[in-house]
Amino acid sequence: MTPIAIVFLVISAVVVWGGLIGSIGFLTARPEVDAYPEGENTP
User: Fold this and answer.
1) Which residues lie below 8 Å from residue 1, measured CB to CB, with a gap of 6+?
2) What is the pLDDT of residue 25?
3) What sign has the CA pseudo-torsion 23, 25, 31, 37?
4) Membrane-spanning regions, if any (predicted)?
5) Residue 40 gets which letter from DSSP?
6) Contact yes or no for 21/14 (Cβ under 8 A)
């Protein structure tokens, strides 16, 4: 592999895994929705 390909591989891995870790952290901090928007199926 060329050096530029390795750089792009590392950048894409950081973006994907960073997004996964960030979303897991966000969901553990705020697991439930406080308020739902108005809609047709509201009781």
Assistant:
1) 9
2) 94
3) negative
4) 6-27
5) T
6) no
C-alpha distances in Å from residue 35, one per residue of 23, 26, 27: 20, 17, 16
C-alpha torsion angle, residues 20, 26, 31, 32 (rounded to 10): -120
Could you read off the pLDDT of 1-43 as tens digits, one per residue?
999 999 999 999 999 999 999 999 999 988 887 777 777 665 5
The identity of residue 7, as a single letter, is: V
Q: How far is CA 38 from CA 6, 31, 35, in A?
A: 48, 20, 9
* Model confidence pTM above 0.85: no
pLDDT at 37: 74
